[in-house]
Amino acid sequence: MDDYFEVFGLSRKLQLDEEELRRRFYALSRRHHPDFHQQAGEREQAAALASSALVNRAYRALRDPIARVEYLIALEEGRDGKEGGTKPRPPMDLLEEMLEVQEALEEIKRSELDRAARERLCAERQRLVARRLATEREIRDRGADWDAAVEANGERASLLRWFKEALATRAYLTTVIDDLSDALGKDPDTHVSHRRD
Amino acid sequence: MSRIVGIDLGTTNSLVAYVDGGIPRAIPDAEGRLLLPSIVAFTADGAVVGEAARRQLARNPARTIYSVKRLMGRGYDDVKDELPHLPFPVVPSAEVVRIRVGEREVTPPEVSAHVLRALKQRAEAHFEEAVDQVVITVPAYFNDAQRQATKDAGRIAGLDVLRIVNEPTAASLAYGLQQLAQGVIAVYDLGGGTFDISILRVHDGIFEVLATNGNTHLGGDDLDRAIVEWLLADIRATYGVDLAGDPEAVQELRLGAEAAKCRLSFEERTALTIPFDAFTYRRDITRGELESLIAPLVDATLGPCRLALTDAGIAPEQVDEVVLVGGSTRVPLVRRRVQDLFGKAPHSRLNPDEVVALGAAVQAQILAGGITDMLLLDVTPLSLGIETLGGIVSVLIPRNTTIPTMAKELFTTSVDGQTAVDLHVLQGERELASDNRSLGRFDLAGIDPMPAGMPKIEVTFLIDANGILQVQAVELRTGKRAAIEVTPTYGLTEAEVARMVEDSFTHAEADVSARLLIDTRTEAITVANHVERALRQGAHLASAEEVARIRAALSALAEAREGVDRDVIRERTIDLNRATERLAEAMMDQALKDALGSKRAVEILGGP
User: Fold this and answer.
1) pLDDT for B231-259, tens place per residue?
2) B420, CA 20 to 30 Å: which among A102, A112, B87, B433?
3) Is the separation of the CB atoms in A90 and A98 below 8 Å?
């Protein structure tokens, strides 16, 4: 699979200067974008299209700190995209903790919410959103550990496992938050309008 | 450097522009008009476009096609709700919309091709050379089928469409070229039939679209429709007449409503007068009344704005400038709502009717190699996915991904000896395939017979810089390219487009002469009207013999106008002009005398 870090001339590190990444993205776009190869031959146009598509995909994967970790895991495991590989399950204690929320969500499907229940679920959602933010912060912070391990050429497998679990937790939280938002109606702060995170 | 022009193919008006000495300019027609009404009338003598077609709207509603952009790349089921509002008949079918025009059926791309051809001719008349290469704009929220239909329209018109570019981003290029917008900008584009919002970062010549959203069925037409419904109800209440079933009357009301809406952008109150056969309808409309009618529609644009901001990861206060594009943004209520949402006053320093075409011209110049320091990085507005087991969509390319982009996916067979795999490709944001837009079915054929699960077919989904999907497939074991047959769900097949291109050549000649004939007739009517007025006002200045001569020339011209011989009409128009020459001079003389006392006009003017 293509190494997106390499596309930008970067090593496989998680903490990167996003301004610098954008500058390199713009520079590569200027070199490869089909607009600047419109008057060239068919072969050159096709090549520009392919390299421009690669640059765009690479930028999308790396510009966001969370997407960057997801991509890094896929790259380290040598598989393409999100599909394949073993998807880790969210931690058991989180699943147990969510049982009550899940039951409440089932309840909503059967009947209208009373005011107290609605308020409780709104508070729950707020708590989950805060928790997701904390998880994301933790993922970003552990990026420093990863980079240090790369520098020292040290052990990385356990860190990768940790990242996978943290991402699974985040994905699960997102699902529950979305389900709650669907059930409770719009809330401008936390509402995720589409199914993807 | 080849000449490439930019075309804004609008719902209401279209125009063509090019970059001249570093400045984008719209190209006028022979009368100096920039906007070409996107209206095509199929008259007995052929197709006419623009102002001439607009005059047919109320006269010949069933054969005069307007706002066809709303039907581009759509299926019959998509537009069913709209049909009662359209005065022209749409043929019920399972797939592409077809409009019945007399004996013929035409598709929206064919209708649009007439508009494009008129603009091509306008550009050719301007440059005095052939113009074949174009950039055409589309709403940013157009899906693959709508973009493909626009490209097809270009081909049918004999044009090489080098790029399909999004309207709001085109506008940002026009602003950027003149350094009128920098930083994070929001382009709010409410046109005749479509709405787009795009959030861009403009930095150092790069125009990076962060997110886009919109509604391809929301625009000035819908505002007009809301007014018409209200007027129809008012007429029912006041006169006890229901005009809803009378296409000519509805068309008159629509034109009146549109004009009143425009006036109410500058006045607090306006009078509407529409003469019908049985009575003349008069009523005053205030801006407040208009606003209460259209508020729900204007508010419907705000949701997409919020979604675009969220997807861009931008808070409203981080937006540096809000740019308004499209004629409907002249409506004060629209401006107020946009200001409330973004917390800053929006502006439209460049003419909102022309800015998209100017931007298309800038993009054309970039493609021609004439501008090298500007680059537009646009996105695909909708997620692209394939249908998987259970009718669930698996997303391959999420919305707001910078284009061009590609995704690869591996497929295999599920039955021993299976030689073909069927893929259903969709666009949209919903989880179930049936809730999304079906783009088409791709049949991967010619797979060597193998046990189930053995073949490895790698399919590449590529969205090019036009936002249009290209699909390629390779069987990895053999390295053999799999043949793909595409059946577009709401598009024309390659063979259909090829046939329409052929047809257009046969029709083109007839259409040109039809247009010239109508132009000549219009000119004849204008001259005759002038002469009639002169006879009413100045008959005392002419001898009885002279009046008789003029009357004879008038009736000769009227007779010629009934026929189809353009040369005869032109000759008799000239004859009439000649017969009236002396009278016209005498009247001018008289007018000057009245104004300046007894001096003769020739003395004052220093003539012979």
Assistant:
1) 999 999 999 999 988 888 898 999 999 99
2) B433
3) no
Whether residue B589 lies in the annotated active site: no
Cα→Cα distances B415→B441, B450, B454, Å: 20, 9, 10
Contacts of A53 in chain B (CB under 8 A): 404-406, 462
**CATH class of the domain at B496-605:** mainly alpha
Give catalytic status of residue B261 as yes or no: no
For chain A, give every domain's residue range. Answer: 4-77, 92-184
Instruction: Show the DSSP H helices in B442-543 as ranges.
Output: 494-538
Residue A33 in contact with partner chain B when CB distance is under 8 A: yes
* CATH fold of A4-77: Helix Hairpins (1.10.287)
Domain B220-297 has CATH 3.90.640.10: yes
Residue B79, token pair as written in the block: 């537009």
Amino acid identity for residue B517 in this structure? L
Contact pairs from chain A to chain B, CB under 8 Å: 73
C-alpha Rg value of chain B to the nearest Å: 28
DSSP B274: E
Q: What is the pTM of this model?
A: 0.82
Q: Which CATH architecture has domain B4-218+300-377?
A: 2-Layer Sandwich (3.30)
B195, amino acid identity = F
The Cα B234–Cα B241 span in angstroms is 10
Distances (CA, A) of B453 to A82, B392, B461: 21, 21, 21
> In this predicted complex, what is the ipTM?
0.84
Phi, psi (degrees; rounded to nearest 5) at B473: -140, 140
DSSP string for residues in A12-38: S-S---HHHHHHHHHHHHHHH-GGGGT
